[in-house]
Amino acid sequence: MRSIEFAYTYYKGLYIPVVPLQLNHRSEWFEHWAFVDSGATYSVFHAREASNMELDLDSSMQRMIVVGDGSFIPAAFVKMPTRIGDVELEIEIGFSERLGVGFNLLGRKDLFEKFQVCFSDSKRTISFHFDESITQ
After folding, report:
1. Helix (H, G, I), strand (E, B) or coil at 48
2. Among 1, 39, 56, 95, which is 20 to 30 Å from 62 by CA?
């Protein structure tokens, strides 16, 4: 089992599990940062991230998703090659103009199915343990 560990990021006076990752579009890797949210089902990024990668969302799957305050926001979902550390996998990511939390969210779907994710607030680290025996 391979392990990847990141230090928490200092943000507005708090240490939080925001990690770097890369998304692939048209054979080019783009670096992004996302808050690892064990309470979120889906990974949702702000729509400007799709725009920066020149990702066309017109033919993507559209869904209304529930956010933390119980309201719904529209999101366009795309399955994307994603790299966390040295591990590559496909993650379905929603892109929304209405994501209002100030950072991208990395949710459970696809990610937590492939990794055992461990939060250590005392050490201010988050680790991803990848079991290569789990098929994609």
Report:
1. helix
2. 39
pTM: 0.92
CA-to-CA separations, 45 to 1, 20, 21, 99, in angstroms, rounded: 29, 13, 12, 7
SS3 of residue 71 by DSSP: coil
Q: How many domains does the chain have?
A: 1
Query: Does a structural domain hold residue 93?
Result: yes
What type of residue sits at position 73? I
Q: Is the separation of the CB atoms in 126 and 135 below 8 Å?
A: no
**Residue 136, in any domain of the structure:** no
CATH number at residue 125: 2.40.70.10
Q: Which domain holds residue 13?
A: 2-130
Convert the pLDDT of each residue in 100-126 to its tens digit.
888 999 999 999 999 999 999 999 999
